[in-house]
């Protein structure tokens, strides 16, 4: 399934999963904006407690700053299907 250090490349399912990565990278800001709007709606409707909605929104607001500190390594460094990064601290 994963490929990398194995004799064959990634399985078809992994190629399909990874196909969206360039789009995910290009649209992450819009994705965050949509997530903030969604949690605001959930809070306004009482589906999520107000303090929880605020905590989620604050966490989402910290992602761009945290993402700027991520160092990506090439796939070949790990032999895995996607780029690996060090963990983000939010």
Distance between the termini: 31 Å
Please list the strands of the largest sheet in the order they lie side by side: 1-2
Radius of gyration: 17 Å
The count of strands amounts to 2
List the helices and strands and how they pair.
Blueprint: H1 12-18, H2 21-26, H3 28-44, H4 50-67, E1 72-73, E2 84-85
Antiparallel strand pairs: 1-2
Index terms:
single chain, 90 residues, mainly alpha, two-stranded antiparallel ribbon, 4 helices, 53% helix
Summarize the structure in words.
A two-stranded antiparallel ribbon has the order 1-2. The chain is built from 4 helices and 2 strands, in the order H-H-H-H-E-E. The model has no long low-confidence stretch (mean pLDDT about 80). Helix 3 packs antiparallel against helix 4 (about 50-65). It is mainly alpha-helical and about 90 residues long. The radius of gyration is 17 Å and the shape is elongated. Helix content is about 55%, strand content about 5%. The chain has helices at about 10-20, 20-25, 30-45, 50-65; strands spanning about 70-75, 85. The longest helix has 18 residues, at about 50-65.
Short description:
With 90 residues, the protein is mainly α.
């Amino acid at each position: 399934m994963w490929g990398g250090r194995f004799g064959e490349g990634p399985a078809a399912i992994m190629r399909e999963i990874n196909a969206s990565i360039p789009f995910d990278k290009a649209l992450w800001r819009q994705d965050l904006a949509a997530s903030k709007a969604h949690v605001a709606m959930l809070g306004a409707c009482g589906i999520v407690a107000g303090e929880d909605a605020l905590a989620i929104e604050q966490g989402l607001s910290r992602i761009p700053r945290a993402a700027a500190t991520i160092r990506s390594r090439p796939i070949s460094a790990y032999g895995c299907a996607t780029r690996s990064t060090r963990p983000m601290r939010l």
